[in-house]
Input
Amino acid sequence: MEEEGDFSFDALFGNLVNELLPSFKEETDSLDAQSAGGNEGLPNGTMRLPSDATRSAQGLLTPLFPEVDALLSLFKDSCRELVDLRQRIDGRLYNLKKDVSSQNSKHCKTLAELEKGVDSLFDSFSRLDSRISSVGQTAAKIGDHLQSADAQRETASQTIDLIKYLMEFNSSPGDLMELSPLFSDDSRVAEAASIAQKLRSFAEEDIGRQGINVTSATGNATASRGLEVAVANLQDYCNELENRLLARFDAASQRRELTTMSECAKILSQTYPTCYSSLPSPTTAILPLRVSCEDQYTRLVLGDQGVQTSPNNVARGLSALYKEITDTVRKEAATITAVFPSPNDVMSILVQRVLEQRVTAVLDKLLVMPSLVNLPPMEEGGLLLSRLQYLRMLAVAYENTQELARELRAVGCGDLDVEGLSESLFSVHKDEYSEHEQASLQQLYKAKMEELHAESQQLSESGTIGRSKGSSVASSHQQISVTVVTEFVRWNEEAISRCTLFSSQPATLASNVKAVFTCLLDQVSQYITDGLERARDSLTEAAALREKFLFGTVVSRRVAAAAASAAEAAAAAGESSFRSFMVAIQRCASSVAIVQQKHRSQYFANSISRLLLPVDGAHAASCEEMATAMSSAEAAAYKGLQQCIETVMAEVERLLSAEQKATDYKSPDDGMAPDHRPTNACTRVVAYLSRVLEAAFTALEGLNKQAFLTELGNRLHKGLVNHWLKFTFNPSGGLRLKRDITEYGEFVRSFNAPTVDEQFELLSIMANVFIVAPESLSTLFEGTPSIRKDAQRFIQLREDYKSAKLAAKLSSLWPSSS
Output
């Protein structure tokens, strides 16, 4: 072994040899020494080998493997033993093969015999199964025959009993005393009811058959008369039995004996199935609905006096009543579930009765539909107690009744469509709802207008206002009020909420909303148009006052002074009416903005559009109607603004006529320095315009403001030009005119009207014709040839026009103008 765990055959063999031949090495060494000393080398240097004799002699003397003989004998013995062992093993193997072959043959033979036995056993089982099946079929047939025979026997027995019972009922008319104990035994009432029902059906069927098939047979006629007696007696007995069951059920219900109640209900349901499923059934007729009576309903909802004007009180009353009904039905549902075999059918009938009888009775007293033809007078409270009150009561009742339907659905009502039934209670009211809503809005508007008119009359007749200003102040009390328009919108919002409540279909909702919104448009349009017309009336009155005090030039001083005083009063009235109209315009714009989309409330955008959009064309049609409704107000506003311009220009012309002096523009040449201040007339006119137009700047906005100021600026320019054409100017007067034009131009610059500014700038240029020397006129308008024609008119107003012969000079300079 060289290393632990490594095995070497060489090492094993070496160890074995060293153990068996211990002297082999020593002998080998001695032989080597002898060979080295005794051999002689050959001349060529090779070693001389010993001869065979020599080696034999040496071998005899000392054997090379002394143990070989022992090993050979050992090997021979082992070989013999191995051969014997192989022969024995071969013999045993041969014997085993023979035994295995023999056993295998026997086993195969046994298996073949077993297979034959199993096959025969299967055949036996198959024959046995067929036999069993045949026997079973025979037994089943026998059983069927026996069952059929038993059924026939039972039927025959029952038929015999029924015939016996039928003969008892056929004994004599109205005699129920001779009946079997079965029909009077309370413990067998279910069996008696079943038999009576069978006898009744058989007798009625026989009477019908006899009546059809037999017309003159005497025996059959007798039989028919006999069965008719039986039918009459059976009818009487069924009625008596029904009354007994109802009495037992009622007594048990008073004692809350659910078992007895269930038994009676079961018998009744089996005996009278058609009546049980119908509304006036005897079974449901005895259900004790433990709710208040009709008078208590009315007091609970309508109050002690029978009438409640507040919808909130009615809502509370209905809520309390419906809660009581729901609680009662919930209690009855527990009883019905425990008593009746078909509780869903009974609950359906119970809930239907509650809605059609109890709820309908309350709604009929609560909702008295007013007439659409004969409207109640306002002074009798017809508005609130009839039209609007009716609509508010209708909404309250509808909401609470729908909530009651949902509560009853949660309690349980079988297959009854309780929501549809509750909806049908309001069908009559919903059919004419839209007309009532529009009539209500019209009544509200009429009442509001009468209220405002009465307030205006009271204020105008108070006596604290001077007669000269009475008309303008009276009209101011009838000014357009944004608060009133907001109230219109509030009415409309309330009406729209009811439209949403009563209209489940989008098309119906859109139609109702459109009709209600059209009422709002008509109301707002009429209200602001009337307000603008009243404001225009004050402008017209002021214009009439101005025309009244226009006199000719040749009047006495006293008359002129009186006329001037009256003109001042007319001017004050005109200014007041101007301010009133501007306030009306401002409030008109605010009112329209509330309805349209420009105000923060955005009523149309947030409320109406959302309801109209689902229906094609409804939104566009409403927008068109809105524009059409406001067109009358726009026309009145336009006419009024034109009157405002006329009023302003009339006062401007009056101030210019009264304040402008001929010496303003033709001051004497007294050597004093020229006056560079604007004339008194200019100062008065600018002050007046600044004061009066402050209301216009506040009231108008956007394009309306721009158009108004532009028109006023053009009229002012034209009026000033016509006014100045009446005067004669010298150079110092031309300077004052230029100063006036500058003052007017600075004022109109606040109009933000470029065309007006341009006109006054050109006017300032033309005023230079009064300042420059005659020889400089030709070069004055070289940059602006378009105003030469107007400039010629001004040149004719020069003081030296004739003396300087300017007409001839202008003809030679501007031949086209001549």
The chain is about 75% helix and 0% strand.
